[in-house]
Amino acid sequence: MRAFIVDRYGKSDNVLRAGDVPEPVVGEHDVLVQIHAAGVNALDVKIRDGEFKLVLPYRPPFVLGNDVAGVVIRVGGSVRRFKPGDEVYARPDEDRIGTFAELISISEDDLALKPERLTMEEAAAIPLVGLTAWQALVEIAGLREGQKVFIQAGAGGVGTFAIQLAKHLGATVATTTSAANADLVRRLGADVVIDYREDDFETVLRDYDVVLNSLDDETLRKSLRVLKPGGKLVSISGPPDPAFAREPGRPWFLRPVMWVLSRGVRKAARRQQVSYSFLFMRADGKQLGEITSLIDAGAITPVVDRIFPFEATNEAMAYVRTGRAKGKVVVKVR
């Protein structure tokens, strides 16, 4: 089958090589999916560049890609929830990535039926950012009606989804974006929109319950100061904390490293009487099923900036690297 392969880590926009690889093996609990579309994420760029070699030690050559929408063509002997012909989508487990390809084998537990109201391209834009927002706001932060949440970079992939999810949960939402994207984030539900080029969010926001951080270390530390005592900061951009290092499958030597890397922010959080958590989202078909229900009910709509043909996957990666995408970038495979 055709796929885009990482032969070596590197920051060149032509690192991915189009080539042929064997069809994936389908285990007892696996589902073979014919890929119609694949989302392209900043995570894909960082993996290709080698930024996650310490925690995600993929050995080249490997197929890249973390979002998929497609059709089931075969199931393992123990699979009960899916059958050939089902339209599905997923964020594969971190050990089984490879959606920039024509086929992928995915654990039944990581898969969900595709929202009926979405095209394949729209569905492929959802899993990674949707699960990230769900695990940050629902699972970790426990965001609820009447609370205030600050979601950074509201026009990005995670931001556009998280704003809609937070509004569905009944929260007041503040976000940062450029003036050019202010109308977009307001349409998605943002109540307070801060032009990051003109204003410092730290001088505008006060007594927030939750912050979803996706930017740099300076922004992270400023975000701690907009929380009220007892507030929660969830970061998807680091630094990883000791709890992350203790997750099953992480190498033992990460524990002292993560403890040192996150010591400063954890100490600052204690001074502010708030909590700090790092999130590296995980595959979860059950949560994705909850997200499907929200989408089919009209509570959340994907935001897709551009759709590239499969043969232009490197160009799609280059566009994501610019940081200018509004919502998600997708590759149409079939």
UniProtKB/TrEMBL annotation:
<keyword id="KW-0560">Oxidoreductase</keyword>
<protein>
    <submittedName>
        <fullName>NADP-dependent oxidoreductase</fullName>
        <ecNumber>1.-.-.-</ecNumber>
    </submittedName>
</protein>
<dbReference type="Pfam" id="PF13602">
    <property type="entry name" value="ADH_zinc_N_2"/>
</dbReference>
<dbReference type="InterPro" id="IPR013154">
    <property type="entry name" value="ADH-like_N"/>
</dbReference>
<dbReference type="InterPro" id="IPR011032">
    <property type="entry name" value="GroES-like_sf"/>
</dbReference>
<dbReference type="GO" id="GO:0016491">
    <property type="term" value="F:oxidoreductase activity"/>
</dbReference>
<dbReference type="InterPro" id="IPR020843">
    <property type="entry name" value="ER"/>
</dbReference>
<dbReference type="Pfam" id="PF08240">
    <property type="entry name" value="ADH_N"/>
</dbReference>
<dbReference type="InterPro" id="IPR036291">
    <property type="entry name" value="NAD(P)-bd_dom_sf"/>
</dbReference>
<feature type="domain" description="Enoyl reductase (ER)">
    <location>
        <begin position="11"/>
        <end position="331"/>
    </location>
</feature>
<dbReference type="InterPro" id="IPR050700">
    <property type="entry name" value="YIM1/Zinc_Alcohol_DH_Fams"/>
</dbReference>
